[in-house]
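Now for a sample.
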Amino acid sequence: MHTKRKALILKISIPALILGTCIGTEYFFNTKAAEVSEKPVVIAEELANTANNKPLQIINKQEYKNIPGLLQVLDFSEDDEVILSIGMTKEELKKKYKDFKLDKLTDKEKKDFYNDQYGNVYKVNLNTMEKIALKDGGGYIASRSIKAGISPQGKNMDYLLNGSSKIYNIKTGEIKSYGQNHKDNWIGGIWSKDGNFIINYVEGGLEVYNVNENKVEMIQIDRDNFYISTIPGFFSEDGKDVYFIGEEKGNKGDERRQGIYKVNVNTKKIDSVMLLPYVDRTKRNFKESCIPSAVYEILNGGKSILLEAYINGESGTYMYDVENKKFNRVISHINSKEGDFASPFWISPDKTKVVYVNRAKENDKECWNLYVARINENNFTNRICIAKDIELGDSVPNWAHWSNDGKKVIFYKADTKVEDRVAYSDKNIINVITIK
């Protein structure tokens, strides 16, 4: 994107993830934030394998090829069971939608097309390839109806059916109504790490749903000096404290700064946890500082934050030391011909390991590799590459998943091609790698 304004937006190509311009914000918050230096301390410290950590090893690799209509790997359920989004194949879609041109379809036809492409939710045993459709009454649960996704440990899934928000227990098949209904265009939120709460954005604040008690807590927040980012980026361990990406308007010109804040659900008190420098994007030659991704992790009992960020014009993946207010670059990037790029990451359930994507040069060409590393306080150690030169299908949040015991990584590869602005895959491979 050729522009002098470097606002922050995630531009996802297939399969690349490239960083481009900046996102504005629109939701006000009212709170006071702690002071922050306009020159954050950034350190680049890559630790070698330490004596206290055994080297990570790949002990098994398995491939499951060409499941017809496979579009997304949603998660592990248990053992070797996965939750998949399976729709029509390319041939089936072209047969049903003859002379297909996306821009010539009516809104209803487009909706029907995407519903057919994304299909329904299935539980699949990778050993036997037995496929079981998840149903609500006599009807299938559509993949596009899923909102917050699959809960940690693969127990529950939330979805929207005719304006009614529901929770599906993947293990038992039990369905219960959500304590709060939503419109069909509801985007959805995130699960707390304990799987007992769903956190959503609502106008003027947050909605925290207690799954076990079927109760909704609404947190209204004044709109005076602070905003919730258009990429709100919620995180919560247990529904008691909710982290979010927010933005504060400064006193000089149009300066603003982003950061990660924490609100206590009971007291409604808001605290700043990590703050970036102020940026006035109306000025020429400004240096960008912002958070381009809604995905981040709170680690080490709240002492560390793993996130993608721009800091004074430098993009990277950082581990932020909350106590010492230092950013440690944990993933080094090559100088890519594509420009700045992100390295999406996924944390193991026990928070001791991370799998991440990074751009590399293999045989004189740029490609995407997949890595696993240990998390050692504010660093990554014992890094190993588990897959080279991969073309990752699917949307970014579902590129990779950990098994519930943290011993296996699952990722989905596809030879994705775009025809008339629609992505198809003639081949797809589910990869399961066991790590010790």
Summary: The first strand starts at residue 10 and ends at 12.
